[in-house]
Structures are given as C-alpha cells and as structure tokens.
Design brief:
By secondary structure, the protein is mainly α. 60% of the residues lie in helices and 5% in strands.
Length: 166
C-alpha cells in the first residue's frame, strides 16, 4: 500500500504543471528582490527629494492629538494612517506589473501573433492536390479536343479517346 502511495506522489511531482509552478515560484521570489531593489534604490530617493526617503515615514493622524513614544517610536496616542507604506506597496506592484507586461507578456503575444500568421486560415480553401490538378488538366484537354466547353470527366479512369480522321 505504501509503495502505491509513494508511486502516486512521484507521478504527481513529475507532472509538468507542478514543476512549472515550482520554477515560477522561485523565479517570482528572485524577481521580487529585483523590484524591491529598484523601489528602494531608485523610486524612494526620487520621492525622498520631496521629503523622507523612507516611504514608511509618510503618515497622517486621524485624531486631534497624535503622539509617539520618543524611546521606542511606537504610536502612543491617536490613530495613524500609514499611507507611505501603501504608496510603497502600490509602486512596487506597478513596477512589477510593468516589467512583467513589457518583458514577458508583450513579447509572448507578439510571438504568438507571428505563429498564428504562419498557420493557414481555417476558412481558406486548401490548395489543390496533384491529383486534382491533373484531373483539371485532363478535363481541359478533353474539352479542347471535343470542342465542348465542359466535357464530363470519364469515370473509367481513362484519359480520353482520340478522334481518328478517315
């Protein structure tokens, strides 16, 4: 019984979608580090030109009295809205979405369009086969010999009969 369970687990792990998902998680984690570095190294200093470089310092107080403990930095009194950390998360999301779109989705869509353009259109008539072309040529030659605009195709498989002049 345990051998069957282990075999099933092995088959589950070896499926393509499980392996692809694992690769996606690893790449996503590495990509998150890149985006966080861009936000911390580029975006935050640009925003810091207007105020504090650490977006977590941007906050607003909802009550009339707001106070922080000077020793710990914790909020001692009042209700704070930490909109700087929300802004930082939103910028991280936008940068991630832009990089994924422009570096992954857009090129893949262009590639798929090129591949689709190479495929024949389903509604278009297929090119005639050699047999069909030869049949058309035969029918045209028979029609030319007999003088009729459209001669019926012989069903016996013979090309046609020649007229003999006596």
């Amino acid at each position: 019984m345990s051998k069957g369970v282990l075999q099933g687990f092995k088959e589950f792990l070896m499926r393509g979608n499980v392996i692809e998902l694992a690769v996606a998680v690893v790449v996503g984690a590495a990509f998150t580090n890149i985006v966080n570095a861009v936000v911390k190294g580029i975006i935050n200093p640009i925003v810091g030109a207007l105020g504090s470089q650490n977006l977590d310092h941007y906050q607003s107080c909802l009550t009339a009295t707001c106070a922080k403990d000077p020793k710990t930095g914790a909020f001692a009194d009042g209700i704070y809205i930490l909109w700087g950390s929300v802004l930082s998360a939103a910028l991280t999301f936008l940068i991630t979405a832009a990089v994924v779109y422009f570096l992954m989705i857009l090129p893949i869509n262009k590639w798929k369009e090129r591949q689709a353009a190479k495929q024949p259109v389903d509604g278009a008539p297929a090119d005639p086969t050699e047999i069909e072309l030869l049949t058309e040529i035969r029918d045209a030659l028979i029609a030319q010999r007999t003088g009729s605009p459209s001669a019926p195709a012989p069903t016996s498989g013979t090309i046609g009969t020649q007229k003999t002049h006596e």
